[in-house]
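To whoever picks this up:

The parser on our side crashed when reading a file containing two proteins. I've narrowed it down to the boundary between the first structure block and the second sequence. Both blocks are reproduced below exactly, byte for byte. First block:
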Amino acid sequence: MTGTGPAMAAVDGTPDAGSMRRAMGQFATGVTVLTTVTGEGRPAGCTVSAFSSLSLDPPLVLACIDRGRAMHEHLTTAPGYVVNVLRTDQRELAVRFAGRGADRFAGLRTRPGRHGIPLIDGAIAQIQCDPHAVLDGGDHAIVVGRVRALATHAGDPLLYAQGAFLDLPAAHWESALADAQHEWLLNAPW
């Protein structure tokens, strides 16, 4: 990606949804699938890229979910949820859980976590949360979870920006990790 494309005009006042999407799409993000169980005990899940760590003490994370999605009700009434951080080769899962309709769990290898919530096999991290708070986020709800269990696994994260999945060759990941100033954010002077 380069900065050689046409410049987007500055919007004075309230931007429209399309302008917001384009601007926010410039921010590369990881891709997760949030899973939970419905009141009837059926598995439910959806793709979420609006996910972040919130606090280390207590351990809190947040995910933003559109109030119009069925998953909104599931996440705000369930005994908890799992954030499954997807690996680079799990694009198909990201697309499957972003869509509507068919049984998203058909043929998917999972195992039960806390509260019987599915943990997706192959995810590079599985963060199991209990409900902590649901905050107003406009047309989205900010679902804050208290981390109760987690696991990490080898692999590179699936990334998304500008409406597309990003491919980074293994050599680029290895180079970036070798040159990384680990924990730079924790030691920042602000």
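<<boundary where parser fails>>
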Amino acid sequence: MEENLDKNNEGNKEISHNNPKSNSEEIKGPKPEVAINMDIKNGESSSKVVMKNEINIPEKPITKPKKELPVEKKPFQEFIKIHLIPSLTEEINQRGLEINSISLNNTNRPIAGDKCWVINCEIKDTCNFWLSFEKDDISSLKSISLSKPNQKPSIIESFLIDEKRITLKLIISRVLQRLNGQKLLGVN
């Protein structure tokens, strides 16, 4: 058995002497993995040297591109003034109606009289509506009031109370649905 180990040591020395690469070249290149398999059968032993070349590439952290904040997560006034009012105006105009005025104010809610954020919209020769937000948060309690031109609203209704996720499209569609329900946007 000692003879086999001595032969293996001599073979290993020959392999290292026959290698013309310098130490710096060996460091730069991939390092081979050495596995020694020993078989023992009937009192005889033999060993095999198996060389495996595996390149270990350092893992780079994968950076995900930053997603832009959804418009619904933006500050309340930015959402209303930059996204909701222009989109709502465009939708109403596409239905052939003209908006005389639309604005956001922290004022008294129609009928109830409590102070909150109110979008007041006057649609020419059609109606006025007030979309009220209890707090400066689109998820806060909301209400809507409608009236014919030059009249005061007589009813205040809750708005989007059962919705868990409030989106820009949802607010617009429900305002239009409410106006259409009163036959203010044309024939049903």
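After patching the parser it read the second block fine. The mean pLDDT is 78. The first helix runs from residue 2 to 17.
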